[in-house]
Amino acid sequence: MRIRTTVLLAILLMLIAVNAKTLPAQSGTSSALTGSINDATGAVVPNATVKASEVSTGAARTARSNAEGRFLFAQVNPGTYRISVAAEGFGPAESQPSTVAVGQTIAVNFTLKPASASQTVEVTAQTGLLSLENPNTSTTLEAKAIERLPNPGQDLTYLTQFAQGALMNTAGSSNDAKAPGGYGNVEFNGLPATSNGYILDGYDTNDPWLGLNIGLSTNLVIGLDAVQEATVNTNSFSVDQGRYAVAQVNYFTKSGTNAFHGDAYEIWNGSLFNAEDYFLHANDMADSSAKKPRSTVNEFGVSIGGPIRRNRLFFFGHYEGIRMALPLVSQITLPTPAYQQYVLGQLATGGTDPVTGATLPAQPAEVPFYQKMFSLLPASGGSPVPIVGCPLRTNGDGCASQRQASLNNSDSENLIVVKIDHTINVNNSVWYRFQQDTGLQAAYTDPINPVFNSYSPQPQRTLVAGYTHLFSSNVVNQFNPGASWYSSIFEPNHYPQVLGTFPIVLASGSDSVPFTTIGGNNNTYPQGRKVTQWQINNNLTWTHEKHTWKFGINTRRLDVSNYDLGEGTVPTVTFNDLAEFTYGAAYTASQSFPVSLKERVSAGNLEYYAMDTYKPVAKATITYGMRVTWNTNVTSEKDLFARIGGSFLDASHDIDEPLKQVVLGNVHGLFPAMPSFVYQPRVSFAYQLRPRLAVHSGFGVFSDIIPLQIADLAAMNAPNDPTFVGGIGGQVGGIGIAPGVAGSAVDAAANANLSFKTIFRSGGAPCAGMQPGAPTCPLAVSLNTFPSGTLKTPYYYQYTLKKGPLPFTGILGDEPSQAWKNDSANSALKATRSSKKFSFFINHRARSSWMI
Q: What is the rounded CA–CA span in Å between residue 387 and residue 504?
C-alpha cells in the first residue's frame, strides 16, 4: 500500500513539474473580480491602470480597462482584495477590501473625479444571489461564519443545509443505497443526493463508487477548520460549474499569509452529559440489571500558517483528530440453559414439527455444532419470552429469555492537511495541497459475542496542485491536476479464524422465534473497495471587448478494486419455527459462489465546455455556453461481468433453452453501448431594473456521473457469481443446518453450484425436463438485466426566474458594509445564533486563536 501510494504521488509531482514549463495552469477555482470605470458624467474611462492586491499575502495583478471601461481579473484565488485605479486626468481611487468567494465573481465599480476635484471617489460592489455577474444561485459561508455555526461533528457537508432548496436526510444510512429513509446527507430541489458534487480546491472529492460525499472511518467529512470558505451553487447555469446535475459545493483550503496565525480547539461530549436509553431497563430482573453503556466523543485540532518568504512563499498546516465510543443498547433473545440441554437431547432422536406437521429426521452429527454454538452465547438472564411450541414450563416461556445488551463501539480518525502557496512572479503562481486521512471504523458490534465484531481501516491520501499563468492581462489559464487513493474494506479481524469458530450465519426467519442472529454480519463479508482516482482540469479565460470567453477541460480516470463479490460467500441459514431449531432443520440455506472475491473495475470521463459572458450594456449580462461529456463504459479487467444480451423482455423464456445461449458469461463492458456525447447547453440573463433591483433568469440541461456501484449488478450475476438456496423452503434440497453433516442444506447449495457450472459449460439447459406443475427449477439463478441498445443517460432540465435587491457596499471612506455576505447565509446565521448555546449545552467546547 505504501509503495503504491508513493509511486502515485511521485508520478503526479513529475506531471506537475513538466506541465509547469509547458502548460498554463489553474488554481482549482473560477473566482474573479470585475467592474467598470466611469467618470462623473457616466462616460466610460478606457485604458485605466487597475491593480488588484490580495490583502493577506500581498499578491498583486495588474490590468487595463478596455474600450468599454471594464476590467476583469479572472481565475483569482478566493480571498480579500483591494483594487486601485489610476487614469490620466483623474485622481487615484481605491476600494475597500472586497471578499471574493470561491467560485464567484464580484463586481467593483468606480466613478472617478477629475484630478483637481475632491478625492472622494464613489466605489460600489455587487455580489450575492442576484449579482449581474453571477449566473448561479449561490450561498457562501466564510471562515468566521463556518466557525460560529452549530455543526454536530464538524462535518463539511453540514454547511450545505443552509443553502436554498436544501433538504436534510435524517433517516436511514447516509452511505447505504438501500436505506429506506434517504441516501446521502442532503438533497436539493427534490433531486437525488447523487446529483451533488463536493469540490475541494478544484478536485472532485465525491466517492466515485457511491456517487456521494465520502465519509471515512467516523462517517464524518472532517477538515472544516482548514476551510477558508464554502460556496453552494444550487443552480449552476455557468457551465464551468456543474459536472453534477443539482448542487456543486466548492470549498477552498486556507493558505498561509504574511502574518503567522493559528488556532486550537477541542469539543467533548460524554456519558456524564447524556441520558440513558429509554428502553435500557426494559427487561431487568431482580438478579440482573443492564448497565448504561459508555459514550464519548472527543474532537480536537490545531492549525498554523504563515510566511516562508514574505509576499512569495507561504505554508498552512492542519491536524484534526476524533476519538469516539458510541453507546449501543441492543435487545437480545437467547435460548435458556434448560432449553439448550433439551435441544442437545432432541437432535439425536428427531421429531415432528407441530406447526407444519412435517417429520424432521434425527441429526446426531449436529450435536458438536450446537455445542460449539451454545458456547459462544453470553450468560443467560433477563425476562422469559413465551414461544409457540416451547415444551418447557406450562405457558411456553421456558425456552428463551430476553434482555438488553449494553455495548459501545470505538471509532478513531486522524486528518493532516498541508498546503504550500508560491507566487513565482507577477505572471505565475502555484500551490500544492497534500491530505492524509487515517482511521479505524467499528463497522459492526455484535451483541452475542465480540468474536463477530467487524472493523474497517480506512486510509485516504490526496495530492492536488494548482498553477496559474497570465499570458496577458486579458488571457489567463489555470491547470489543476490531482490524484487520490482510499481503501474501505469490511470484515472481522482474523476472518479465517472467525469462520473456523462458526462457519455460518444462523438467523430466525420468523417473528415467532425471536432468537438473536448468531454469526454477526459474516454473510456480508468481505466487502468494500480500494479506489484510485486521477483528475486533470484546465480552464482558460479570455476577455475581449464586451465578451469574456471561458474554455475548459475536465477529465477523470477511476480504478476500483471491488471486494463486494465476497458478499454471500458465508452461508446464511434460517429457521422458521422452534421445532426446526430444535431438530437442526434449515428452512433455507443461501450461499453465493463467485469465481473471484474481487474484481478490477475502471471508468473515465472527459468533459469540454465553452462559455461566453456578454455585457451588451452595463445593466445587462448574458451568459451562455455548452458542456459536452464523453463517458467511457464501465469495464471489468478480468471480464467478470455477466448479463443477458438484451433486456428481460427481449430475452427468450424457453426453459429448455441452454442458459449459455441467453447469458453472456465473460463480458468486458457493463453496458451494451454508450452514448457518444452528452450535450448540456445552458443560458442565463440578468438585468438591473433599478439601482437596487435586478431580475435574473436561466435555463439549463444537466446530467450526472454514473456511480460505479452499478457494476455490482453485472459482477454478481451467474455464471460468475450464482446463488443457490437449500433447505426445506429452498430449491436444491437438504435439511441439516450444519455444513458437513449428512443431508446438509449448506452442502446441497454447494453441490448445486458444481452441477450448474457443469451444465452451463456443456451448453445444457438447467431447467430442461422440469415436470409440469413443479414449483421451481432446482438450478434456477437470479439475473440482473440491462436495457438493450445504447444506454440512455438521464437528463435534468432546470430553470429559474427571480427578482430581488442587489447587494450594496457603500461609499469609500465609510465603515465597511457587512452586505458582502450572501443574504441567505445571513438568514441562516440569524436563525441559528439563538440555538447555538442550546446545541452545546451538553458539550465542552474550547477554541483559541492567535496571530503575530
A: 24
Angle at 843 between CA 840 and CA 846, to 5 degrees: 90
Q: Which of 36, 49, 32, 30 is nearest to 619 (CA)?
A: 36
Considering only CA atoms, which of 495, 498, 520 is closest in space to residue 507?
520
Grid cell listed for 661: 445461449
How high does pLDDT run on average in the chain? 83
pTM: 0.83
Average pLDDT (377-397) is 89
- The DSSP line for 580-592 is HHHTTB-SEEEEE
Phi-psi region of 707 (alpha: psi -120 to 50; beta: other; left: phi over 0): beta
Residues in the chain, total = 852
Please name the helix (run of DSSP H) or strand (run of DSSP E) that holds residue 831, with its range, or none.
helix 823-839
Q: Which of 766, 791, 664 is nearest to 717 (CA)?
A: 664
pLDDT band at 811; cut points 50, 70, 90: very low
Summarize pLDDT for 389-407 with one digit per residue, the tens.
999 988 889 999 998 888 8
Query: Is the confidence at residue 651, as pLDDT, over 70?
Result: yes
Residue that is written with C-alpha cell 466515485 in the block: 208
Give the strand order in the sheet containing 70-76.
70-76, 31-39, 105-112, 122-126
Measure the CA–CA gap between 73 and 223, rounded to whole angstroms: 29
* CA gap 485, 1 in Å, rounded: 10
Q: Which residues pair with 439 in a beta bridge?
A: 413
Cell, residue 634: 464501465
- Confidence check: pLDDT of 577 > 60: yes
Q: CA-CA distance, 347 to 357, in Å (whole number)?
A: 18
Nearest-5° Cα angle at 738, 734 to 740: 80
Task: Give the other-Cβ count within 10 Å of 263's Cβ.
Answer: 17
What is the distance between the terminal CA atoms of the chain, rounded to a whole angstrom? 40
Decide: helix, strand or coil at residue 401: strand
For 158, residues 6+ apart whose C-beta sits below 8 A from its C-beta are 149, 151, 152, 185
CA distance 706 to 794: 10
CA gap 172, 183 in Å, rounded: 8
Residue 817 has pLDDT above 80, yes or no: no
Over the stretch 443-470, which tens digit does the pLDDT of each residue have? 899 999 999 999 999 999 999 999 999 9
Q: Are 699 and 799 a contacting pair, CB within 8 Å?
A: yes
3-state secondary structure 336-366: CHHHHHHHHHHCCCCEECCCCCCEECCCHHH
Q: Are 751 and 722 in contact (CB under 8 A)?
A: no
Cell numbers standing for residue 769: 425436463
Residue at 63: amino acid letter: A
Grid cell for residue 751 = 453441490
Estimate to the nearest angstrom the gap between the alpha carbon of 101 and the chain centroid.
24
* Residue 552 to residue 625: CA distance in whole angstroms: 11
What is the rounded radius of gyration, in angstroms, for the C-alpha atoms of the chain?
32
Query: What is d(CA 38, CA 765) in angstroms, rounded to the nearest whole number?
Result: 83
Lookup: cell for 847: 477554541
Give pLDDT tens digits for 663-703.
Answer: 888 999 999 999 989 999 999 999 988 877 888 899 999 98
Cell of 669: 463492458
Distance (Å, whole) CA 830 – CA 840:
17
Measured distance CA(787)–CA(840) in Å, rounded: 52
What would the grid cell of residue 270 be? 460524554
Query: In whole angstroms, what is the distance from residue 782 CA to residue 804 CA?
Result: 56
For residues 612-640, average pLDDT: 93
Secondary structure (H, E, C), 206-255: CECCCCECCCCCCCCCCCHHHEEEEEEEEECCCCCCCCCCCCEEEEEECC
**108-118, pLDDT tens digit by residue?**
889 888 876 54
CA 490 distance to own-chain centroid:
17
DSSP code string of 418-438:
EEEEEEEETTEEEEEEEEEEE
